[in-house]
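Key result, reporting period 2: structure in, sequence out.
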């Protein structure tokens, strides 16, 4: 077990995924001048490419946004951290509006969005992109299983805690289904396609202590689960079914998730970690699709603090997000999985494929 004797690093508040509601904005009047919103168009062009392989509907909606100056204008009026395509698209799905989209009638869908804009806007301002993708455990579990067991696990940006349950899922890594060490019969089977050699089999993984930290924990009530389902892209119904089953696991075996914002949360989190350091096994702090919401200085501060603590640091983030980590860059959208600053895999952001390095 590594030493855990450091104190929290000073620094600015890390806002993470969620922020407070901004000043109100309204739908632009037809008399407003038509303004090019290049930044919004580029965001949606990029997201169209990302969604194209598995969600043709979201690809088409994103391209429609790029063709609509009025939609670009109203989206540009949102706070910068609320301009993410995922938020707008999830709001459409949550309200059932995605089914009204027609490639051949841009004006009609613009009218639909205008008519429901206040509802859409309120969802965007009050919700977060807390996707909480259990499928990422196809990447995380083999890495965690390669460490001395049991693993005492902290997750930053834990959302509803679905990736805090890697030992309670079944896995299909291409050679048949293997159960996690604590998997119940009704737990989801997380499937992936692999190249290379995984560090260890997920069935070896045993989680001892587990704790999540999130600025706004998701409690998996009916409304929260409906929002999480809305974040799953149309065309990926298997992911939505997997989400529902994983939510059932978390309800049956609830992982502890505490509200906190870094770096302040390290004041009490460090105390917890120091207590775990006395236990046999390994202490791991992990995060996935979390550091992308921090600026570069905050990412470096996070990396330094975890190194000073002496814990293992497991990250699963977009390419070039984590400082000092380099990996091959396949042409398709991908994240990089790294342990203690060393890249171990490039993989689908949702764990659908993994290339072990």
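The corresponding designed sequence is given below.
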């Amino acid at each position: 077990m590594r030493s855990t004797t450091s104190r929290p690093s000073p620094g600015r508040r890390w806002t993470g995924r969620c922020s407070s509601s901004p000043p109100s904005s309204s739908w632009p009047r037809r008399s407003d001048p038509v303004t090019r919103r290049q930044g919004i168009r580029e965001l949606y062009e990029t997201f169209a490419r990302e969604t194209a392989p598995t969600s043709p509907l979201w690809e088409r909606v994103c391209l429609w946004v790029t063709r609509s100056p009025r939609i670009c204008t109203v989206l540009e009026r949102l706070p910068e951290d609320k301009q993410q395509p995922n938020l707008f698209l999830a709001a459409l799905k949550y309200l059932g509006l995605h089914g009204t989209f027609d490639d051949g009638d841009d004006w009609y869908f613009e009218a639909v969005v205008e008519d429901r804009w206040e509802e859409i806007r309120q969802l965007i301002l009050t919700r977060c992109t807390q996707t909480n993708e259990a499928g990422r455990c196809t990447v995380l579990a083999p890495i965690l299983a390669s460490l001395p067991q049991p693993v005492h696990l902290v997750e930053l940006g834990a959302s509803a805690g679905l990736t805090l349950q890697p030992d309670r899922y079944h896995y299909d890594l291409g050679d048949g289904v293997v159960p996690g060490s604590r998997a119940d019969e009704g737990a989801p089977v997380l499937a992936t396609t692999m190249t290379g050699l995984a560090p260890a089999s997920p069935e070896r993984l045993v989680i001892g202590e587990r704790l999540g930290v999130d600025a706004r924990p998701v409690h998996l009530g009916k409304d929260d689960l409906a929002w999480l389902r809305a974040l799953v892209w149309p065309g990926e119904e298997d992911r939505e079914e997997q989400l529902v089953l994983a939510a059932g696991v978390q309800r049956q075996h609830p992982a502890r998730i505490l509200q906190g914002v870094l770096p302040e949360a390290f004041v009490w989190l460090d105390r917890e970690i120091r207590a775990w350091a006395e236990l046999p096994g390994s202490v791991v702090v992990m995060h996935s699709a979390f550091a992308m919401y921090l600026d570069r200085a905050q990412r470096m501060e996070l990396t330094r603090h975890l190194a000073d603590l002496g814990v293992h640091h497991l990250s699963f983030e977009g390419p070039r997000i984590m400082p000092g980590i380099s990996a091959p860059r396949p042409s398709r959208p991908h994240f990089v999985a790294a342990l203690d600053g060393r890249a171990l895999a490039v993989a689908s952001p949702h764990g659908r494929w993994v290339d072990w390095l």
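The two ends are 26 Å apart (CA to CA). Confidence is low (pLDDT under 50) at residues 1-12, 19-36. This case is discussed further under Risks and Mitigation.
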